[in-house]
Amino acid sequence: MNLLTDIAVKPNNTDDSDIMNDRIESLKEKTPDLKELHTDGGYGSEDNDKKFEELGITHIQTAVRGRKSKVEMKIEETEGEYEVSCPLQKVKSEKTRSRYKVCFDKKICEGCSLAGDCPTLIQKRVYYFTREQYLSNKRKRNINTLPLERRKLRPNVEATIKEFVKPLNHKGKLRVRGQFKTVIYACSMGISINFGRIHRYLTVNPDLCGLSGLMKAGNRLFFKNLFQVGQKLRNIFYFIFFMVKFHQLPNFEIKCCQVA
Ligand code: SF4
Asked: What is the pTM of this model?
């Protein structure tokens, strides 16, 4: 059904990986079955890798940020031990004080056509890495572990973006300004996109019409509750409206009294 389950609004100079870092726990809380998360290349970071590992989520990245290394090192973990493979060799790592090291066979390296571009060149055919580098290396290869038909799930996001930007003005900008109004816009769009998707799903699956009745009842309950909440929050909305409109805070007075 491709439902939107999380919406975050941040200034457009915020790094994608920081936004993801903020949302990982909340995503897992809302969708405890989440085992696999597909993103483009901008959402990976060492911090995120650690969080994903703790929460048992596999991060599938469809592209890699930065320049691609000419010689790819593959770091694998088996029962707490690491093995590093280059195009010609596979070697077990040794633990050093703060990281891991792999000593490649210099005789094989001498005859290697990639020797000049290899990351082991400076360290005399020794390769150092940390646990964080292992996680990052694994993240970049995660997509290769999927069957071909599951490697192209992320481009569906473009359809969502298209729906989101439909009401923007002719310059492709929002018709509202400020974070508060943008959050309201994004959440309302998210709700309407989800309703549209559920409706289309039920239309092509008429055998689920019992569910449709359930949904209608759910909608009625949702809007009834929304109306009640809205009534209770009316004064707060008036207050925010005046603040935004006149750009000034009303004066408050704090009084203190003593009870005998
Ligand atoms: S130079 Fe050595 S370590 Fe580097 S790719 Fe060639 S064989 Fe592997």
From this structure: 0.74
